[in-house]
Amino acid sequence: MSDNAPDSLIPYDEIVQEALRAVVGRVLGSVERSGGNLPGNHHFYITFKTAAPGVNIPKQLRERFPDEMTIVLQNKFWDLQVVEDGFSVGLTFNAVPAKLQIPFGAITAFVDPAVDFGLQFQAVGDLEPAAHEAAENDGSGTDEERGVATDVNSPDDGSNVVTVDFGRKK
Fold it and tell me: Where are the domains positioned within the chain?
C-alpha cells in the first residue's frame, strides 16, 4: 500500500465507529433486560464527553467535569434504560443520587476490566475540550464516593482494546 492513499468517498471511519457503538448498546441492553444484573464479575467503565449534544447530567457534575467523565457501572446503579441512540442510568456521587442521560455518540471509551475488553471512540463532532484547571477529585473522598471500582484485578496493559483511527484530515 502507498503512503499517499486517495481520500475515500465512503465514510468508513464513521461506519465503523457506529458499528462499535452498537456493541455498547447491545451490552447495556442485555444488562437492562436482565433487570440491571451484571453477569459474573463484569463491570463497565464508560467515558463520555460531558459537553456533547444530548448529554444530560446534573449541573454540579458538568462543572466538576467540563470536558470528559468516566462512570462505573458495577454495584450501585439503577434505572438503566437503553434506547436506540443512548442510555440513561441512576448513580450516586458523594452520596447524592443523580440521573444521567448519555447518547452513544458522546462515548469515547467503554471498558470491561473483568474480561480485559475495551473500545475507544472519537466523540461525534470531535468536540474540542474547553480550557479548565486540573481536576482535584482524585484525592478527596473514598473510591466508592468517586465512583471508582476498587476490585479490578486485570492489568491495564491495553490488550484487547480496539482503537479505530483513520487519520481524518482536518
Answer: 12-125
Strands 86-93, 78-83: pairing is antiparallel
Give the 3-state secondary structure of residue 128: coil
- Positions of E strands within 57-158: 68-73, 78-83, 86-93, 96-103, 107-112, 117-120
What is residue 62's predicted lDDT score, i.e. its pLDDT?
93
Count, in order, helices (H) and strands (E) of the chain. 3, 8
Q: Tens digit of pLDDT for each residue in 23-45?
A: 999 999 999 999 999 999 999 99
CATH of domain 12-125: 2.30.30.220
Q: pLDDT value at position 63?
A: 93
Tracing cell 463484569 back to the chain, one arrives at 42
pTM of the model: 0.71
**What kind and span of H or E run contains 162?**
strand 161-163
